Amino acid sequence: MPLLSRVSRLVLIAVWFLIAGNGYAQQPLRWGADPSGGAPYVYNDPSHPDQYVGYEKEMVDALAAAMGRKPEFVPSDWETLVSALQRKSFDVIVNGLEPTADRQKQIQFSKPYYIFQLALTVRNDEQQIHSLADCKNRVVGTLGNTAASRLLQQQGIPSRTTPSHRRRTAIWN
Fold first, then answer.
1. Cα four-point dihedral sign 167, 168, 172, 173
2. Is position 172 within any domain?
3. Chain segment 109-138, per-residue pLDDT in tens
4. How many CB atoms lie within 10 A of CB 139?
5. Is residue 46 part of a domain?
6. Which of 7, 63, 98, 167 could covalently link to 36 via disulfide, CB atoms 3.0 to 4.6 Å apart?
7. Best CA proximity match to 75, nearest among 169, 164, 168
8. How far is CA 111 from CA 48, 83, 114, 115, 148, in A?
9. pLDDT tens digits, 17-74
10. C-alpha triplet 173, 80, 55: angle, nearest 5°
């Protein structure tokens, strides 16, 4: 085989690898989250309801830029985030998903980017509820499959959860 032919083939192979590698870098960074959780994390922009804004969106935008990729948001229900990641519906979950022992058996977690605390929230005019113990004979609204829902269950406090697409209003009514 002539030297020029071998060099041409090597150049073609190298160009192919460069294109293939560059193509991977150009693939979007698909991220999943449930926008119904609301502000400040990821939610519909009130001025442009077809767009999303929030802390987690800004974080993914910066991460994607550092990776040389374009971010692509894939809205998902909170209850199906883990299974959607396993189905490869998106590359990462960026939605404050707590690293429970059960979830850690199914998926990998990064170092936390947000440290949360549970808080009991009541109306300003509420005079009978001062602690979680005061809720023993009441129904508490919470998001399903969260640290809060698990705590309520452990404490034997009745709770009401709603499907994620109705979260913003149904729990608080």
1. negative
2. yes
3. 998 888 878 889 999 999 999 999 999 999
4. 11
5. no
6. 167
7. 164
8. 32, 21, 9, 10, 21
9. 444 555 555 899 999 999 988 888 899 999 999 999 999 999 999 999 999 999 999 9
10. 70
Q: Is residue 126 part of a domain?
A: yes
Residue 144: Cβ within 10 Å count: 16
* Residue 94 in domain: no
Which residues constitute the domain of residue 160? Answer: 117-173
Beta carbons within 8 Å of 134's beta carbon, 6+ residues apart? 128
Asked if residue 170 has pLDDT above 50, the reply is no
How far is residue 4's CA from residue 67's CA, in Å, rounded to a whole number? Answer: 37
pTM of the model: 0.67
Number of domains in the chain: 1
